[in-house]
Amino acid sequence: MKKLVAAVLTGVLVAGTLSTGVYAKDDDKTITVAASATPHAEILEEAKPLLEKEGYELEVTVFDDYVRPNEVVESGEFDANYFQHIPYLDQFNEEKGTHLVNAGGIHYEPFGIYPGTKDSLDDLEDGDSIAVPNDTTNEARALLLLQDNGIITLKEGAGLSATVKDIEENPHNVEIVELEAAQVARVTGETAYVVLNGNYALEAGFSVGKDALAYEKSDSEAAKTYVNVIAVKEGNEESEKIQALVDVLKSDEIKDFINEKYDGAVIPFDDSADAADSKEETKDDAAEENYYDYYYEDDNGNRTIEMKFYSEDDSGDAVQNAKELFYSISGEPSEVLYQVEPKDQVGADGMARGIVAGTYDDEGTCVYIVAANDGQKDYIMELYYPDSAPEYDYDDVNYIIDCVYRYCSFAGGTYKPRSHELFMRDDMGEKK
Fold first, then answer.
1. Nearest alpha-carbon partner for 73 in 9, 84, 246, 139
2. What is the full DSSP assignment across 104-115?
3. Which helix (H) or strand (E) holds 426?
């Protein structure tokens, strides 16, 4: 089954210098952590009273760079740090010869495209400028996100080592403005768009759910790759106080805090193998029961029209779930021609829903997607069909889409299916 909810989002780096001078203490009941301000230090502050109940005192020092937090853990001045994802940790160890390890994944953050002087990616014009972070990992993620949204094409295999030199196609001749991560959000009045790390988006007052024009798709591998971790010096990852710290940060209390405070910009990470296995089994079982694929083949056996209906378990806040689903499907078309973002409240039927339509591939295939969530499940309808051509009547194609929408139970349509005659007269027909 094709997964619409794919890649996402994910961790971030933070810039830095030391703001205060706290050193690791010898006693096993004090935990010193170097952290970036948002959201890492905020999450740690929320963890303090929970650790106090376990008999530990947590001391948090805020840094504004991404070098010193690792240096002070390597030297033993601090017990741990919390600011980075695994690719950056691995890269730092390789370049600096340090011996830092992941003691536990806590959260991941979506990486998104945000408005600058323009409020929609549909407004992109030749010669527009787009600001991106200039550090190795995050620049690659920014470029990959631009590629996913049809703005540029990178050389095959560039992946997470991509730089501007790997841009193979740039049809709009966009100017990629490379800046330090902390500076990107400051040029929203100068560039058409900015591509921001999750924490810098928060600091700039952006909401992923409300403001992001697009963000990384959220498959499990992306989350695992870019999860923000508690990092310690090798050999300390199994110490009692580090285990206590990680356990508290992965507790339900902290997960609830993250979900409530950050509006989807920060997402708790669940690395339970049992939970993952169980989830995959559930999806596999549900796939056969809740997945329907209808298609029309031409005389050569090619699927020229295909329609898919399916559902997936996704419990929680219906509006937030629907928005996450919407932003993931927004990356499905290579060119988005029409979209309706979920409203900030559910409809009378208890569902929140979004719609995306556009061109699916270079061959002119079109896609029309309705996606909804009721607080328990995602409901997705996908329609793939040939773009308007001399042999097709565009009005007839639109009439079919109109019927599909009205017949689709979770689409939220308030009108009954109408005749072709009514459609051509632009008569909405009868209410349900």
1. 84
2. EEEEE---EEEE
3. none
At 164 the three-state DSSP class reads: helix
Closest CA to 399 of 388, 410, 412, 414: 388
Tokens of 43: 């999450």
Rounded to whole angstroms, the Cα distance separating 117 from 193 reads 7
Instruction: Single out the residue of 330, 43, 34, 15 nearest to residue 184, CA to CA.
Output: 15
Residues 386 and 352 sit within 8 Å (Cβ to Cβ): no
Rounded CA-CA distance 152/142 in Å is: 11
Question: Which residue has 């011996």 as its token pair?
Answer: 99
Helix segments in 204-272, DSSP class H: 208-211, 220-226, 240-249, 252-262
The one-digit pLDDT tens for each residue of the chain (432 residues) are 222 222 222 333 333 333 333 445 456 899 999 999 999 999 999 999 999 999 999 999 999 999 999 999 999 999 999 999 998 899 899 999 999 999 999 998 878 899 999 999 999 999 999 999 998 778 988 998 999 889 999 998 888 788 999 999 999 999 999 999 989 999 999 999 999 987 788 788 887 767 889 877 655 355 677 899 999 999 999 999 999 999 999 999 999 999 889 877 788 887 754 344 444 544 454 445 567 877 777 666 666 788 888 888 888 888 888 888 888 887 778 788 888 889 888 887 789 999 998 887 666 788 889 999 999 889 998 888 877 654 555 677 788 888 888 888 888 888 888 998 888 888 999 887
Cα 245 to Cα 32, 33, 109, 370, 378: the distances in Å are 10, 10, 20, 42, 34
Beta pairing partners, 31: 58
Domains and CATH numbers, the chain: 30-110+222-268 (3.40.190.10), 112-215 (3.40.190.10), 284-424 (3.40.1000)
- Find the distance separating the first CA and the last CA of the chain, reported in whole Å: 32
Instruction: Please say whether the beta carbons of 177 and 129 come within 8 A.
Output: yes
- DSSP letters spanning 181-217: HHHHGGGTTTSSEEEE-HHHHHHTT--HHHH-SEE--
* 260: its two tokens: 């409530």
